Amino acid sequence: MPRRPRLDPEIFHLPVERMRAGYYSDKYFVRAREILVADGFHPHVTMQVFGKQHAFLGGIDEAIAILKLCSLDWPALTVHALYDGDAIEPWETVLLIEGPYDAFAHLETLYLGVLARRTRVGTNTRRVVEAAAPKEVMFFPARHDHWLVQTGDGYAAHIAGAIGVSTDAQASWWGSEGIGTVPHALIAAYDGSTIVATEKFAEYIDPEVKVMTLVDFDNDCVRTSLEVAAVLGDRLYGVRLDTSEMLVDHSVLPQMGRFKPTGVNPQLVWNVRRALDEHGYREVRIVVSGGFSVEKILEFERAGVPVDAYGVGSSLFAGRFDFTADVVLKDGRPCAKVGREFRPNPRLERVV
């Protein structure tokens, strides 16, 4: 039996006719199919797909959806695959496609692209989640890339362990919704008053939504945190520190000289935590954001910095996790370029 259900292909809303026509595919694959069709040649091949790095696999259900909906003869294909969220080794086969090559030759660009993109996001997210564990990680990179990538990226992050995503699109494939804090722009709209903006948020937003507010608008996170906590009381779930790397928070100025004072640094977090605790707001959580990566999170965790959750953005798009596809068998016999021989993988499962 399959380990778990796969996503329904319809959830991806693929532009099926254009994909079938080769509109999004490298031209040489489209022409290869045209040649085979014109020649009446239908070679039965085995296509092997693999990556070259240790990674956390993403995009496999989307790749399967492309094959199911956009191949010219899905019933003629036999597909075996790993699952989204599987840890993979370098050169490990993640997807195996068998059948007449002309039925799926035009799709290679597409399934390799989604595997590369989603695996990059999922792997980076998993590394951040592992660095922060057991603390929560919030997935906040939507503003750093095109809106069309949000749904799949959000799902890749969810599978990788992110506790929350910032847009409804990112959360749509598992039936959830985006989360967020009181933003700087709303504070500015209320004449720069974090207190008023947060009060309005609490007044008009669903009571089930946790109230979390940015407290760095005036570059004085301690004072602003205490003011908001005093006004909101138990309704305040948490404060978010997002100080620019170009600024030194007011509370840190007297302590400068022994550490890098700019941005969200450990001393700033300690200042806010101690102030909240001393004034009886021990339940107010602290979320940090702004330039956080695996390395910065590990630095905070090793130092025991009292962070409750991390908001991570652009670093989740870093790096490359490319995939390659090769015809390795023809009619069941070896037929691969040198160095790309058939590598069976017992972890693969038949796709139905």
Descriptive tags:
six-stranded antiparallel sheet, TIM Barrel, 11 helices, nicotinate phosphoribosyltransferase, 352 residues, six-stranded parallel sheet, 17% strand, alpha/beta, 34% helix
Q: What does this entry look like structurally?
A:
With 352 residues, the chain is an alpha/beta fold. It folds into 2 domains: 9-120 and 319-350, nicotinate phosphoribosyltransferase; 132-317, TIM Barrel. It has helices at 16-21, 27-39, 60-70, 108-132, 150-160, 168-171, 184-189, 194-204, 221-232, 266-278, 294-302, and strands at 44-51, 55-56, 78-81, 87-88, 93-100, 136-139, 164-165, 211-214, 236-241, 285-288, 309-312, 323-330, 333-334, 349-350. The protein has a 6-stranded antiparallel β-sheet with strand order 13-12-1-5-3-14. A 6-stranded parallel β-sheet has the order 7-6-11-10-9-8. A hairpin with a 2-residue loop joins strand 12 (323-330) and strand 13. Helix 4 packs across helix 5 (150-160). It starts with 15 loop residues before the first helix and ends with a strand. The model has no long low-confidence stretch (mean pLDDT 95).
